[in-house]
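Render this sequence as a predicted structure.
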Amino acid sequence: MLSCVHYHSQPYKKTRNDMFGALNRFISRLDSDGPSQSSRDGHGAFGFQVLRNKNADIAIEPWYDFVIGINGRQVDDPDPNLFATEIRNCAGSNVALTVWSAKGQRVRALHILVPTPSPTLGLTLQWTPLSSTEDVWHILDVIPDSPADAAGLLPYGDYIVGTPEGNVHGEAGLGELVEDFLSRTLRLHVYNHEYAVTRLVTITPSRSWGGNGALGCVLGFGALHRLPVPLTEPPAGPGETLFETARFSNEESRPLSANLQSYPPGNSLYQKTSNRSSDLLVPATLASPPPPQPMSSMSPGPPKTARKARKAVSPNSAFDEYFKEGEQKSKEEDFAPAAKNAPPPPPPKMGGPLPPSKSPAPDEDIDEPGP
């Protein structure tokens, strides 16, 4: 983990970055399981990276654009003389360049007129692997009063794409560079996606600014944090591919899948019909079970016995029994008294006559004889 990443003050961001890291490792494992690195992107892993463009009429952006094809053929030779010869052969006419962009990993075709007096395009090219553009760090958050905040880095919109101090490779490359420039001025090339500009940012990494990390920002790295498509381009519609590829005339044909099985003729599930103009797919002849035998030829089964007549049951009787059972259980739980025990009479009302009582008559006074 990079030393410049700040996680302790916001725990939920650590969980989010852990999830991104696991997904990035999974995607990298899928890429490594591919047939070869040269065919992983569909158009080769190398190309001529544009370092400088002196011709303002050519819509090619330095550093982000790679020339991977010319006149319908893939550029698979790093010799720049062969590329320059092909350009000179197109003097006075148009040359077709296939350009791969690191912004969104898209491919586009450019038709450029090659002048006759000096058949050059005014481009400075370098044979570079396309994977070099994957070393990009996405600014996810900037801590206030940190070195990143003082340098003017913007969250979500800024991407660190390189540095004039040297080449930086891998996820830990930026962290190692920051450690080497502690308390010293560090220059970074930062691309902003919202404004589509690349600027040079000066930052001074430090561990004494009052927070965690040397930069004070949260960084994202990997397949989920690569450079997106510019906002000026229309978004991909439903059903469109996420990563475009280019096919060239000198490219070897590859099967759609390495796991496809070859079936002999006539054994496929679907076959084409040539006698129909619609040329639709119809099911092939499949093995069907034998037709059922007639009733007369079938062996007689066991003798049928007369069924006993069953008594019709009303559909409401089941509900009545269910309700009676529930009522009985409710009475038992409530300790309801039985109907044979009469309840005691209510208390008398205020001011009303007293109810007759059945108390026994008083004993008569009996004079006992004196002595």
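Summary. Residues 191 and 197 are 6 Å apart (CA to CA). The helical segments are 11-32, 80-89, 147-151, 173-180, 315-334.
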